[in-house]
Design brief:
This is 5-formaminoimidazole-4-carboxamide-1-(Beta)-D-ribofuranosyl 5'-monophosphate synthetase. This protein is α+β, with helices and mostly antiparallel strands. The protein is built from 13 helices and 13 strands.
Amino acid sequence: MVPKNRIQEILSEYDPEEITIATLCSHTALQIFHGAKKEGFKTLGLAVNQNTKFYDAFPLAKPDEILRFNSYDEFITKSKELTDRNVIIIPHGSFVEYMGTKRFEQMEVPTFGSRQVLKWEESRDSQREWLESAGISMPKRIADAKDISEPVLVKYNGAKGGRGFFIAKDFMEFKMGIDLSEESYTIQEYVLGTRYYLHYFYSPIKQSGYRVGNGSLELMSMDRRDESNIDELYKLGSTEELKKHGMFPSLVVTGNIPVVIRESLLAKVFEMGESVINRSYELFGGLIGPFCLESIVTDHLDFKVFEISCRIVAGTNPFTSGSSYSDMTEPGMSTGRRIAREIKDAIAAGKLSEVVS
């Protein structure tokens, strides 16, 4: 992990008028660049074998410049190329997944949010420790696959966009679906209900709104996920019969659908977010910026949270012009723009070191 004082040393050499917002050209990059431009920042796209021509089709979100690398290791060995440009990195799911936690921690470039959270996010066990100790209800975990006696969801560690997740109803189905090349996985009960992905933003420097600790918690938006091929496979009949033909249900996310939850549940939505933030400060010094609680609401209107994503998630992409929730805070505020606004406010208040690491 790059020491905090090293990041502060780098920040002290930055020209606050020349701050550049940078991220990997993938995932939520269009939204991040679009929001940064609206807040008056220079933007820099980072690419490692990404095809970036399609950015030409979106002039309001196209980065001002694209810097190409041969490998993700070069983000460490060529960090000075980024700091010379006064860069602040915005992490997102693809960036964290491709870089890996260890390389991300070693990168000597100021990064929005807390790097301490990465270790807690990448481990399902650590996530469960954090969330349950915050009073969050989670699906129960099955320690031994031989004990599967009801539908379960098997999840590999890391941010993979649903790739490799699968459902099993017994040990035999587990053996058919498990990928032995994956290092670790978690087995948890399959909870019946409606899935809601809750997109929050926590500011440690904002002094208004829904106060949590020394800062403020916002609900930015909410989505559900289109998943291939499970959303269509049921139309063909019994999954057991389909498996005989080599057709297995897949939970790979292919798109996102905006949703609005019933208003009476919003109190619980904010209480969960508040508990997660308060516990994060006790465990590792605090979660900063965007995060997502991936939840299921049962027919008894109870929440079960099955995962936390500690960064901007792709489910925020339908809301580049704001959402039903963020419009009641400030019209047109996307999560990408909210990140840029937080950096802008921190610069103005002389508190940039409080929102980057």
